[in-house]
Amino acid sequence: PNSGLLLQGQRVYREQGCYQCHTQVVRPTYAGPDRWRKGWAGETPRETHPMDYYGLPIAMLGVQRIGPDLANVGYRVTDAKWHYKHLYAPRSINDYSVMPAFTQLFTKRKIDGQPSVDAVDVADLPEGYEVVPTPDARALVTYLLALRKDSPTAAPTAAPAP
What we know:
The protein is α+β, with helices and mostly antiparallel strands. 23% of the residues lie in helices and 6% in strands. The longest helix is centred in the N-terminal third of the chain and has 12 residues, at 4-15. The two termini are 34 Å apart. The relative contact order is 0.22.
């Protein structure tokens, strides 16, 4: 989890303010319905535990949940091209999205030879041009794809007596 590309992706996530609208916490049962949402808790449905953040330089818990929780987004949405399109034009995925477009993470360029395999499917793009992710967009999507809290954890133990 601490590879250079993932840390770069977490940096982009932080710099772009994604944590302002997205949490990364599968809520405890008493606090909400996360465990029961289809696909939110992975193949092994469970709540988030403090050990999920062990070894991370920063735990990106989030500020508020305006957009969906991203703790398991790497489990729920495994297609990098979907993430690129969503970042570039969120309303092309969800008509009612309040997420801003992160077009600054992409470059519009003239196609030279073969189109990029990561080119974003963009409506109304002039012929012969494509929109491609920048290194920051690639790092961010790599980070999002790595967000998975679907491995089992040990059952909680009682706290030691004082």
